[in-house]
Protein 1
Amino acid sequence: MSEAKLTLSDDLFEKLPEEEKNSEFIAMALKTFAKDAWDRFRRNKLALFGLIFLTIIIILAIVVPMVSPYQFDTQDMANRNALPSMQHLFGTDKLGRDIFVRVMYGARVSLSIAFATAAINLVIGVLYGGISGYVGGRVDMIMMRIIDVIYAVPSLIYIVLIRLVFGDSIGSMMLAICLTSWIGMARQVRAQLMSLKEMEFSLAAKVIGASHSRILLRHLVVNALGPIIVSLTMMVPGAIFTEASLSFVGIGLNPAVPSWGKLANDCRSLIFTTPIQIIWPVAAISLTILALNFVGDGIGEAFQARTR
């Protein structure tokens, strides 16, 4: 009887050949969070174009003033208001200074201010908003009312007062921009953390005895990193535009510092005689802000797709 059952079992079931055992296995490469976000980002053509453009601008801003035979402040009164040529790619200004070198040096100033202020705003906004959203209660209420008081005063008043006290240096400009621009970051981080701190992973970290600082920085802030990075990329064009607009109206940097806004302000008196001079700094500001917006949109879509 047992032999009959064994024979019947052997007839009904056969061992699967080795070559067919993994026939339905779907091979898939493992991706980290950053790799997946980068793959989605580079599929966005506008975002990739913006990143390439910014890279080129940064390289030119570093290299051109170093290798050019002209200095940004070298005057040539015999060659004033010259049109673009092979000798001067963007022409010369009313004092005979090479505009191409001045625009690239202005990129150093404007981009340095923009990236530095964005980094400072990131640190202040994340810490302030993180503490407010994580602690909550009376502490949150007091911290938000402080923000309301700061935000109630027009930022132009802060800028003028700081300029009067600290002068028209790059440091005072960065301080003036940072004084109020971190508020948006703080509010966004607070809103994110107020929802994240009620989730299971946060409660689990509390149960196992993690410290408040570890929960805040290693769990909550990390999970809110997507919106934070998107907001950070939007801060950079805002800082560029603020510096350029202040320099354009004459309350920005020292006149000897050729930022993009200062270059546009210098060309304002020549707009009817040699209008081409104002095109270069304005085009640099516009294209850089546009590229940064493309990059910000691409980062936002990459992180949002990851979240979904």
Protein 2
Amino acid sequence: MAQADLTRVASNIGALNSLWALQNINRQLGIHQTRLSTGKRINSAADDPAGLTIATKLKSRSEGLSVALGNIGDAKNLLAVAEGGIGRITDIIIAMKNKAAQAASDTMGSEERAAIKEQLTAYAAQIDDIVDQTTWNSNGLIDGTYDSTAMRFQTGADAADTTTLDGLINLRASAGGTGTSLELASVTGTATSAIGAANNGATLLTTAADGTINDNLSALSSGSYTVRITMVAGGGAATDDKIELLDASGSPQLIATAADGSGAVAFESPPLNLDGVTSYDFGNGLSVTWAAKGDTASVQESTVSVVAADTYDLTTTGGQAGGLALDSAERYSDLMTYLESKLTTVNTMMSKVGAFTGRLTFKEDQVMASQINVEASYNRIMNADMAMEQVEASKYMILQQTSIAMLGQANQAPQFLLSLFR
């Protein structure tokens, strides 16, 4: 800094020195006041270019770890849903084993054993319902979807930092899903009805098959039904003929009024012309076909046996082939042994889910610790030490006042030369 020469007033070096000091103090005071206002040590790249680069990378990693923590929490919730489903299936299999134990005693008669079997089939159906409802974002968790296919969780800030889970086997009681089910029961029927046709008297039906379900009708229950076609001779008018569906007691059943299963609902079709017509869809899951009939008066019937959708059955080997009918204490004892093996399978699955949940808990602790440490590093570089900044700001505010005072004195100093002119 240049020394002031008070005898040369044209440049007033002393005042210029004071002005430079004041400007420098104002600049430093501005920096500290900005930091106090924003809470940031680095408010522009010029403040600390290297520090800003490092802090940006740390911020990116910290936020990535924060997202990973959320993913881990979601994964644990997903596994909790799976665990809940498996737990209920475990309870049901235990209940099935207990019921089989009751029937394995000769204190039970054939009717009691039949009632127990009815309960067992209902339990098996409930297991399938649980499997169908144990989903996450419409993906089945225990239907075998993630048996050979791994479920992937992003559990870190880096793309490669993932955790995978597979081996979630199919726990359905019946066939379905992916891979082999528990095979606790066999299921007959399709989405609507599985039909077997049997003619009685004059030949009428040639086939009976699954049909559509009219919006106003429910699917037929299992049982024996009669299809009756009444043909009226002569004229071929649209009001000649009719078709009916009767249950085993002869009571008429609601059917669609149109041959394609649509139309209104009635106990019998409105009179129509069946000359040359060879099929009819009742709109309740049953569709029938017959050989073409001429325009002659007749009343013809055929019997169909309907097996409703999802009709469950159990044998000594659950739903596996080769099982024997559950009609004695010995055979229910065999079923107990079979159910015990399936209970072991489900318990193994529960252990797998529990172990993976525990693993995610440790991963969560590790990611949380990393996120805290990364955030601390970012904080030291990017954020201001508010106490220190306040100290510095106070210092420069005092220096600002003294600099202004000294600038005023420096501007007054050259005036002593005026005494030389008196």
Protein 3
Amino acid sequence: MQTYIDFLDRYKYMILVLTTLMVALFSIALKDLAYEGSYKIWFDKESKILKDYEHFRTTFSGDDTFIVAFKDENGIFNPKAVQTILALSDAFKKIDGVRKVDSLTNYQYISSQDDEIIVEDFIKDFKNLEEKRVLAINDKLILNQLIDKDGLTTAIAVRLSNESGADEEVNIYVMKALKDVTDTFSKESGYMFYITGAPAITASLVTISQSDAMVLMPLAVIMVIVLLFTLFRTYLGVLVPSIVIVFTFLLVLSIQVLLGYKLNNFTVNIPSFVTAIAIADAMHLYLAWVFYRSKNINNKEALTTAFQKNIKPVALTSFTTASGFASLGLSAIEPIATLGIAITAAAVIAFVLTVTIVPVL
């Protein structure tokens, strides 16, 4: 053990520089870091359910449809509500990526007159709205599709093209555009609008996960730094664990990218796992060193003793953690498998950094 400590002491600057350069080189891969929030990632690629569903989409068109709904306590069949449906339908048609908009007003109603079959928009103006209400309530293609049985709530279907519907960026873009339009109409009309549908769920999973990552990760880092400084009251006590956490995090994400994996709403939790694992390793060794230094033992001897006392517990903790998470890598569900691979790598990397960078610092 003393030989190893002597080696670290002799080449400390080289180890620090080479490790930093290695992390920097691996981090170049982070420029290709991507995010995937599709529901498909939760199925095995050979899943019969997924294959049958894709076949259904190909044959009968997909379910790439946003549903926008609102309620009028006075009934949908009044001039204000009808005007809102007309205006929303026109506004939604102008959004890029939208193929078709189906609403109560443009529903193609079929009737006959003098032996002629007439196909026309169900509602074109504000005339005969009560008559239209009665027709709608008794039309099975409208009832519970475009209006509810009480005639108080209506839905507008915003359909995407099959090609763009599978694109998460398009889903997110259209979702934002729909919210912008409905927010404007909400202020003008006082209606509360609700957006749902498969694309809305996909878009929400992506945006919420990204938002959480942008808020929770910095918050976690700040809390760790404050706690470390409170415990040790020294900058070194903050610096040592923080470097291990940051280096581990950068290497783990870089490896994910190099292996071709994308972040998803499950693996976005990687930073939390990495922080817990890396700080535990670094803190064990650092705290032991502080303890022996407090007994007026010289620096090198304190480090050697701390290393001897803690190397086995830290190694066992790291590799049992790695083994546990490695078992998740066998899962057929991609998000679970990728998380398992990532945290396995994190446990090993954190251990390696703890027995190199921490003593050097």
